[in-house]
Every structure is written in structure tokens, then in C-alpha cells.
Write a structure and sequence with these properties.
It is a single chain. This protein has about 600 residues and is α+β, with helices and mostly antiparallel strands. The chain is built from 17 helices and 15 strands. Strands 4-7-6-12-11 form a five-stranded mixed β-barrel, surrounded by four helices. A five-stranded mixed sheet has the order 9-10-14-5-13. Strand 2 and strand 3 form a beta hairpin. Helix 2 runs antiparallel to helix 15, helix 4 crosses helix 10 and helix 13 runs parallel beside helix 15. The chain is elongated, with a radius of gyration of 36 Å. The N terminus is likely disordered.
Length: about 600
């Protein structure tokens, strides 16, 4: 049994180049991915790149402290993310801190005053009737709209959803501006018609007592014609400054990912009229994921009035738009008056989209306001100074480690220094890739974590080198010493790195904000330490152990047996054989 084991060990020792080739391929692949993605430097946090950090404190509107809970805070974070991203700040960070604070980090190059205004005000959610809509871009295909349905009376059961296959109402791309203008004018007149007096076709009733002024209609038509919802900057300003009591234009994205533009009537229901909204998987009707809404007593009357009016119209004027911060998040159509105080929106929802819509609807009734606790502005110059100081500290730490290795381990530095270099390359490339992938930002605590990792990586080399030296002190030659010392060193390295990684994981979970950057970097570099030691340091040591400079124990190799106080080889001495026992000769006795 001993021979096969020895053969496998010898085979593993004779092919350390495989591990070196493997880690080389990994480095080349990751570096190529970094250059291909166009992100050749790590994304910097606010404390290094400069920017504004806003701390918002949640306050319950009615004094009920139970309103400050994880669900409401997460919903607020989602809405604030939408707002900041609407400004074109794709690298902004919005996250909770503790149980009642929200931190908004906005990098440099952004209008911080506008951002403060956006995140500090309460979201505006309205239900507006759709007067006209079309898919942005000529020739775009229409998509199905969700449907809203419910019980016609309050005594009926919970509202049931019905799936819709009707196309989303859209104007024909070839329609002339004159035709569009007439359609808008008719729609505004129809919207001004009292509830119940609109004709089934949705055209204005002869008994309509009011209509929009001609100049307002022309202005609205011009805005609608010029509105290009495919442009982010245009979407952010669409309908800006419109009063809830006035018609407006807006943009929204349909289920196919296409942008649509809308002309919307005055708001009929306010977001505060929604008492509760939640995503539900409807198994009874087979509608799949739906969104249910419960209204307050005042909201029930308003919603019954608007749905009763819309149910008499034809497409697209049988739809109402759910508008959050000026953007249409859903545009279901109505088949009947919904007077039961609740409704259900169905369509092509999955769990994620249904949950997203329910969160937006819930925010309209979110009993929280947010007050600024602090606003910290870090200039780019100050951030650059902090980054420079961090890099200098890292360079000093690395230099001290190299001096220590040269002084105490001499030739073994040929193994340690390239290992540190490989670890540094992997850390840099992975940090650069994690920026666009998961939003990782390198802040000052993260730089500190990378500096601490230099010591952790060097410690693994030292453990391995000392185990090999111990074997040489016992009188073994270098190659057997490397293979016998590695299993002991491996166990120690794994235990040490496991403890470091566990500490980093716990720190990442229990902390928030910038401290998580330190924990994340520490955990990442700890994992890379294991990879480098196993796939680079040990194979390189095995290869160099075959070289005469190390194998013969040169005094500058760091493995000189005399300098280490090695014992002479132990040799066994044979003892004289004992006489075999047998019967005693009577004559000799």
C-alpha cells in the first residue's frame, strides 16, 4: 500500500507547473475582462472621489413609532434610488443605516442641491385618467396593458383580476399633427364631462359644460408632440411643475421595456388614499402575480367615481395611470366601476415586478417623513489627498514587509515577493470588476483593509517557510523538507485565514456604511491569500527546491543547514543478533 501512495506523491511533486499555469490563466482572463469592460480602475467612494453624503432621519407623521419598520424603510430606499437615478446619477448609493436613518451618497459632478431636494421631499403618487398615449419611436409595436377589476359593490367578495390581451392603446405612427391635435382636444373635453355623461365611444357629450382653454390645449399638444421618452434627460423633466388639478404629459415603460408617452387628465385619486397594497399570487383565477389595493373611506369614493367614468370610455380613455414622481409606473384599463374599496391589478407580472409596483403604491400611503440630519461635502481635492495618503501608507507597509523578508529569509524572498505581487494584481483586477458588477466602491476603510491584508498574506508565507526550516533542522534535505512541511503549514494557514474571514463576515453583517468596505476588502483578500499560497507559493517553492542554490543550502538562500542549527542525520546502528532459544543440552547443564 505504501508504494502507490509514494508514486502519487511523486507525481504531484513533479508537476507543480500545472498550478502555476492555472493561476496565470486566471490572471490573464480577469485582466482581459477588466480591459474589455472599460473599467480599468476601481470605482472610488465619496471619501476618495469627492461628493456629498446626506443623512436622513425617518419621523412618523402621526407619532406612531411602529411605522418605522424595515418594510417602510426599504420602500423609501427604493423610491429614493429611483429619484436619484432620475437625475442621471448612476453611481449614487442609497442605503439604510440603523433602524431609522437613510444615507444617500452622491458622487462629484452632480447637482447636490437638486439631489437634496429630490431625496428630502415626500413622493407624490397620483391616479390620473389616460387621455392619449403612444409608444415612443415610430413603428414601435404596442404591448398589452394590465387590467384593474373589482367587485361592483362593497358587499361583494375581494376584487378579482382578469387577464388582458388587449393591445396598449397607441396612436398610429403615421397620424398627422392636425389629427393628433384634434384627438387631444376631444380627450380634454371628454375628461371635463361630468361622470356618467360621457358617450360609450369616449367622444365628448353634447351636454359637457366645460372644456380646457384652447391655449392650454395647444400648449399641452406641443409638449406631447415634442416629448421623446427614449431620452433619460427628457423623462426626468416630463410634466415638471404640473399641478395635480391640471392635465399633464408623462412617460412610462411598458412590460416589453418600451417607453410610452402619455397625456394625462387631472389627478382623481391621491396616493394617500391608498390604505394598503401588496403583491399576491392568485391561484384561484390563474392570473398569476397580481397587485391588490385597499383604499381609505375617502379613497373608495374617489376611486369608484373615476372607474365608473372610465368604464364607459373606449381605449385608451378607459385607462388610468398610476403616476409616481411624474413617471407612469402602471396604466391598467377598467371594465366596470370599482366601488368595493379594493381593486386588483393583473397583467404580465412576475414576482419582482408585482412587488415593485406594490411597493410604489404603498409609498403613497407611507406614514413617514424624512428630515436631514447632516450633509457632508467632500471635495475632490480632499478625496485625492486621502487616497494619496492611503497609497503611501500601503507602500510603506509593503516596503517594510519586503525589508523584513530580505533580512530574515534572504533567498526565499524570491518566492515571497512575487507571491505578494500576484496577490496585489488579483486584488486590483477583481476590485475593478466588482465596481460595475455589484457597485463596490473603494473607500478609505477599504484601502485600510487592503493594507492589513499585506500582513495576512506575508504571515502565510512565513508559516510555510518556518515549517520547511523546522524540517531542515531535523536533518532532512530540502525537497523532503518542503513536502513534509507543507501539510503542517497548510493546516495552520487554513485555520488562520478562516478566522480572519469569519471576523470579516461578522463585521460586514453587523455594520453599515463605510465600515462594510473594510470588512469586504478584508474578506476578499483573505480568500485570495488561500488561492495564492496554494496555486503559486507552494508550486514555486517546489520548483526552486530542485535548484542547486536552494538544494545545497547556500548561505544566502535562507535555508543554510548550519545557519539554522541543523542536527546531523540520524543513523540507526544494528545490534548483535541474540541467540535463538531452544532446548538445553543435559550435558551442558
Amino acid at each position: 500500500m505504501a508504494a502507490p501512495k509514494k508514486g502519487r506523491s511523486a507525481s504531484a511533486q513533479s508537476r507543480p507547473g500545472r498550478s502555476l499555469v492555472l493561476i496565470l490563466i486566471a490572471i490573464v482572463a480577469l485582466t482581459g475582462g477588466m480591459f474589455a469592460s472599460g473599467h480599468t480602475t476601481p470605482r472610488l467612494g465619496i471619501d476618495l472621489a469627492g461628493g456629498t453624503s446626506i443623512t436622513l432621519r425617518a419621523e412618523p407623521e402621526d407619532g406612531d413609532q411602529s411605522a418605522i419598520n424595515k418594510k417602510n424603510m426599504d420602500t423609501a430606499v427604493d423610491i429614493m434610488n429611483r429619484r436619484v437615478n432620475g437625475l442621471g446619477v448612476s453611481e449614487a448609493e442609497v442605503q439604510t443605516q440603523g433602524d431609522r436613518n437613510i444615507i444617500v451618497n452622491i458622487p462629484k459632478g452632480t447637482n447636490s442641491e437638486e439631489a437634496r431636494k429630490q431625496v428630502g421631499t415626500t413622493a407624490k403618487l397620483y391616479f390620473r385618467p389616460v387621455l392619449a398615449t403612444e409608444v415612443a419611436g415610430a413603428g414601435a409595436a404596442a404591448s398589452p396593458s394590465p387590467s384593474a377589476s373589482g367587485s361592483p359593490s362593497g358587499d361583494a367578495d375581494k376584487d378579482k383580476a382578469t387577464s388582458s390581451s388587449s393591445p396598449s392603446p397607441s396612436a398610429t405612427p403615421s397620424a398627422t399633427s392636425t389629427t393628433q391635435g384634434r384627438a387631444v382636444t376631444d380627450a380634454l373635453k371628454a375628461d371635463a364631462t361630468p361622470s356618467g355623461s360621457a358617450s360609450p365611444s369616449g367622444s365628448p357629450s353634447p351636454s359637457a359644460t366645460g372644456s380646457a382653454p384652447a391655449d392650454d390645449t395647444s400648449k399641452l399638444q406641443a409638449q406631447y408632440t415634442a416629448l421623446d421618452c427614449t431620452k433619460k434627460a427628457v423623462r426626468a423633466t416630463a410634466g415638471e411643475g404640473a399641478k395635480p388639478t391640471a392635465p399633464t404629459v408623462a412617460c412610462g415603460q411598458n412590460s416589453q421595456g418600451q417607453w410610452q408617452k402619455y397625456i394625462l387628465g387631472p389627478a382623481e385619486v391621491d396616493g394617500t388614499d391608498v390604505d394598503k397594497a401588496q403583491a399576491v399570487f392568485n391561484t384561484q383565477t390563474g392570473a398569476g402575480w397580481t397587485v391588490t389595493m385597499d383604499f381609505t373611506s375617502a379613497g373608495t369614493k374617489k376611486f369608484a367615481a373615476i372607474t365608473g367614468k372610465l368604464a364607459q370610455n373606449q381605449s385608451p380613455q378607459n385607462q388610468f395611470a398610476i403616476v409616481l414622481d411624474g413617471e407612469v409606473v402602471s396604466d391598467p384599463y377598467v371594465r366596470q366601476a370599482l366601488t368595493g374599496g379594493n381593486a386588483e391589478i393583473s397583467g404580465n407580472f412576475n414576482q419582482e415586478s408585482a412587488q415593485s409596483l406594490s411597493n410604489m403604491l404603498s409609498y403613497g400611503a407611507l406614514p413617514l417623513t424624512f428630515k436631514e440630519d447632516s450633509v457632508t461635502t467632500v471635495t475632490a481635492a480632499l478625496g485625492g489627498e486621502q487616497l494619496q495618503a492611503g497609497l503611501i501608507a500601503g507602500a510603506i507597509g509593503l516596503a517594510l514587509v519586503i525589508i523584513y523578508l530580505l533580512a530574515f529569509y534572504r533567498g526565499l524572498s524570491i518566492i515571497a515577493i512575487p507571491s505578494l505581487l500576484v496577490s496585489a494584481i488579483l486584488t486590483y483586477v477583481i476590485m475593478s470588476l466588482l465596481g460595475p458588477t455589484i457597485g463596490f466602491a473603494l473607500n478609505l476603510p477599504a484601502v485600510c483593509g487592503a493594507i492589513v491584508a499585506i500582513g495576512i498574506t506575508a504571515d502565510s508565507f512565513i508559516v510555510f517557510f518556518e515549517r520547511v526550516r523546522d524540517e531542515i533542522r531535523e536533518g532532512r534535505t530540502l525537497r523532503p523538507a518542503v513536502e513534509r512541511g507543507w501539510p503542517r503549514a497548510r493546516r495552520t494557514i487554513l485555520v488562520s485565514d478562516f478566522v480572519s474571514f469569519l471576523a470579516a463576515a461578522v463585521l460586514f453583517v453587523v455594520t453599515v456604511g463605510k465600515v462594510q468596505g473594510f470588512a469586504f476588502t478584508l474578506g476578499l483578500t483573505t480568500v485570495l491569500d488561500v488561492v495564492v499560497v496554494f496555486l503559486f507559493t507552494k508550486p514555486l517553492m517546489t520548483i526552486l527546491a530542485r535548484k542547486k542554490f536552494f538544494a545545497n543550502g547556500h548561505k544566502w538562500s535562507g535555508l543554510d543547514p548550519k545557519g539554522l542549527g541543523a542536527k546531523p542525520p540520524l543513523r540507526r546502528t544494528r545490534r548483535p543478533a541474540r541467540p535463538t532459544a531452544g532446548p538445553v543440552d543435559p550435558k551442558e547443564a
